[in-house]
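Problem 12. The chain below contains 116 residues. Write out its predicted structure in C-alpha cell notation.
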Amino acid sequence: MSAVLFERPSPAEARTLGGVAQCWWAVAYTGAISIAAGYTLQAVGQRHAPPADAAVLLSMEAVFAALSGMLLLSEAMSGRQYAGCAVILAAVMFVQIKPATSAGAMPMPAEPGTLP
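Solution.
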C-alpha cells in the first residue's frame, strides 16, 4: 500500500508491464515456495516439535532468510547484517549450551499435561 503513496514509476514503467515480466520467477517463488510451502511446513513442524526447540528454530528465521538470499539470489550482506546474524546465532547457541541454573527453575515435565 505504501508503494502506491510514495513510489512514482518512470514513464516507461507506467506504460508496460515489462518490469513484472522480467522478474516473474521472483514473484512465483515468493508466492509458491515462501508463502504456501513455507508456512504450511512451519505449522506442521511446530505441531510435532517441543516448544523450546520450535522457539529456537523460529528465532533463527531471519538468519536463514539472509543466508538463503545470499546463496540463492546472490544478494550482498553488509557488515552490520553479518554481525546481526552472528549475535542471533551466538544467543541461540548460548541458550542451547548453558543449562538452566536459576534456583527457581523447574524442570520441564516429560509429557505435556503432567506435573513433576
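Discussion. DSSP finds seven helices and no strands in the chain. Students who got a different answer should revisit the alignment rule from Section 12.3.
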